Amino acid sequence: MLVNQLSIHNLRNLDNPSLSFSSHLNIIYGPNAAGKSSLLEALYILGNGRSFRTTKHNKVINDEYNDFTIFAKLESSGIRHQLGFSRQRNGETAIKLNSEPVKRLSTLAKLSPVQILSPEQYDLLVKGPSSRRKQLDWGVFHVEHSVLSLWQKCHKILLQRNQLLKRQSPYKDISIWDKQLVTLSEQVTQLRQAYCDKITPLFRQYCQDFLGQYDLSLQLYPGWSDRKDIGLQQIYSEQFEKDKQLGYTQSSIHKADLKFVLDQTKRAGDYLSRGQQKLLITAFKLAQLKVMQEYGRQTPLFLLDDIGAELDAHHQQQLLNVLANQPPNQQTFITCVHLEPLKPLIEQYDDVKMFHVEHGHIKEVSVDAAAL
Ligand SMILES: Nc1ncnc2c1ncn2[C@@H]1O[C@H](COP(=O)(O)OP(=O)(O)OP(=O)(O)O)[C@@H](O)[C@H]1O
């Protein structure tokens, strides 16, 4: 996917920019609090319908207005589209694709996939499983869209099952749902596992490059006991009394986790330093990007927020080397405060565009004017 033009109205501190982008590399630079991340936020919203920085939608709307609007001219799977997204303070959202209203956020996700590496994600290893599960499902969805309807069916049945459990219904009433639930759960898990199998060798390779000697890998926890001698159906019958006491189903795809494992058994988050965790997340994101490039329906935008802030010079250089070797259909946006470390990367691209941001004002500048 490719964003050619973007207009933003009333988002954070930005003064309503209209911008044309390079189809390859876009560098957004300027001092702290200028509005660089806000531009990436607008691009991210186009593909996800929400910010990567906050779950509170109102925070994204400029303080003096009641709504924000983002309008983009983009190419998705080789077809040109016009996409508009607006959100009001009361939560009302309007999405228009080629002037036609769109109801489902999954339409956005299919149309304009966006991958982001930002400081907000560096604590993925030490957070709860839900944020890792989101990352996993993002990847699975973009390789295999059918996972969404399986997931939704599964979710619906689980809600019904949980209602029956809360009502203390007998096992015979609840077990009617279990067969279908087991089948759907196993299908979702197979797709998740297939994705893990694709991403793991790439992840291990990037970890090797960034972290050297460590034996790091990914393990999928499906959301229930991974004992080989016992299936999900049996788990449901064995856990029934406890589920009834709790009023919900303990074992489900909603409990899945993508575990980052050191030396086959240890939780990587318990052993790696904070800097190493950042490198591991960087390796994971790059591996996700590569899986999308190789197996996805289309290549996502790649957004790198604050590239210089969190990595030392050596590792920043390694990351820049990876970025310099991206395929020609990869559109990338990088924000930074200092341009100097990006000089070798910029020199490798013929059609890089540079944008200077200050006090919410974004101005395109030539590479020469950026005084590199
Ligand atoms: N709802 C809002 N309305 C107006 N201004 C806002 C709103 N939310 C945030 N801001 C301001 O927008 C500015 C831009 O923030 P942003 O995070 O985009 O800057 P940045 O250039 O990425 O900074 P840094 O380099 O420090 O990460 C900040 O000064 C912030 O206070």
UniProtKB/TrEMBL annotation:
It is found in: Cytoplasm. GO terms for molecular function: ATP binding; single-stranded DNA binding. Residues 3-345 form the RecF/RecN/SMC N-terminal domain. SUPFAM superfamilies: P-loop containing nucleoside triphosphate hydrolases. InterPro entries: DNA-binding_RecF (IPR001238), DNA-binding_RecF_CS (IPR018078), P-loop_NTPase (IPR027417), RecF/RecN/SMC_N (IPR003395), RecF_2 (IPR042174). The keyword Zinc does not apply. One of its GO terms (cellular component) is cytoplasm. Keywords: ATP-binding, Cytoplasm, DNA damage, DNA repair, DNA replication, DNA-binding, Nucleotide-binding, SOS response. ATP binds at G30, P31, N32, A33, A34, G35, K36, S37. One of its GO terms (biological process) is double-strand break repair. NCBIfam families: recf. The RecF protein is involved in DNA metabolism; it is required for DNA replication and normal SOS inducibility. RecF binds preferentially to single-stranded, linear DNA. It also seems to bind ATP. Belongs to the RecF family. This is DNA replication and repair protein RecF. It comes from Kangiella geojedonensis.
